[in-house]
Amino acid sequence: MAVLGALTLASGLSAAGALAAKATAIVVDARSGQVLYDQDADALVHPASLTKMMTLYLTFDALDDGRLRLDQQLPVSSWAESMTPTKLGLRAGQTLKVETAILGLVTKSANDAAVVLAEALGGTESRFAEMMTRKARELGMRHTLYRNASGLPNMEQVTTARDYATLSRALMRDHPKYYPYFSRRSFVYGGRTLANHNHLMSRYEGMDGIKTGYTVASGFNLAASAVRDGRRLVGVVMGGKSVASRDSRMAALLDQAFGRGERPRDGEALVASLDTTSSDVIDGEGDDDDEEPAARAKPTRAVQVAAVPVAPPVKEDKPARGAAATRWGVQVGAFSSRAAGNKAVSQAVKQAPVLLRGAKASVVEAKTGKDKVYRARLTGLADEKTARKACVELTKHGHHCVAVSPGERS
């Protein structure tokens, strides 16, 4: 009945014409679901490429139950090839590895890759959209209706900011093993380096995803998650007028919300314990990294502190130099004191001893606006694969973790 009601609602929207891009927003505590800010969070809007979060949720479901494998090659259909940008540029008859498709969605927001996954799981994109809508109802997304897997324009594809806060929390709660994909800054495909569209992630300390979106009808959308003082928040901003205004609004709302509500107990896990009560292109339609650079937001001020159990401090507190500085690493938090940073890296080594064997501890003072933070990293890892495996392992134990590429200072 809920799905039937949504179908009726969407038909009415289609007949009435496109929804205007409406500014809505919500911020919630990821662990408890407590709403810390709400601006018209139940107003119907278009999700645009935030749609791909549900495509990925169902992909992660399929990986967990064995219907897909990360190294599995999926066929590319003529329908997938026909998708408009943004896209990877796939051609019918090719194959695409599942993990490459995932990375294409979280970084480039590739519409053709979304269809490849949809057809692999649903047979056709339209049947997969029905699966997406059913899953939305199971998760408590009462007002969301999907018509495609990518978020390309369809006036019947609607959602709310509140529903997307629900989906963001569900991704972290139900698929913590795969959530680190959303922190991926870039990946290489076809000889090109494709950057993540979420530019705010590199400037707002503690943010590690989740997804951007843009169409003319939706405006600029962003679902994001960040950690400060051991507490994770989820924010959703819909209908921004530009990348800059959307990102600035998200940063301001998170800054405000971090000052409210109850903090978790010492040592409580961040992502792995989010078990709450059940309950693209600018001149067309796609995602938003093709907007002019001048529209990007300025750096914002924040401090992230990961919650970790007490552990002995480490002696290494200087940046890695020499060969280690040219190799991969992981960042396990940015802290308000050096002692907290030392504690985090020490605990990380204990929880991933094989992967982090030989890594060098680095707790470095940095300035974020007027604030001082201590970035806790383990550097000198052999390659990107090792760094990302370490993050997967640490996330299982409740750590915030981001892979750091050679030479990255931010």
Automatic annotation (TrEMBL):
Region (Disordered): 275-300
Any single Pfam family the record assigns to this protein: SPOR
Residue ranges of every copy of the SPOR domain listed in the record: 322-410
Listed transmembrane segments: none
Database matches in InterPro entries: Beta-lactam/transpept-like (IPR012338), Peptidase_S11 (IPR018044), Peptidase_S11_N (IPR001967), SPOR-like_dom (IPR007730), SPOR-like_sf (IPR036680)
Biased composition, class Acidic residues, residue ranges: 282-292
The EC number(s) this enzyme carries: 3.4.16.4
Extent of the signal sequence: 1-20
Keyword list, A-Z: Carboxypeptidase, Cell shape, Cell wall biogenesis/degradation, Hydrolase, Peptidoglycan synthesis, Protease, Signal
GO molecular function: serine-type D-Ala-D-Ala carboxypeptidase activity
Family: Belongs to the peptidase S11 family.
Protein name: D-alanyl-D-alanine carboxypeptidase
Organism per entry: Azospirillum picis
Record lineage: Bacteria, Pseudomonadati, Pseudomonadota, Alphaproteobacteria, Rhodospirillales
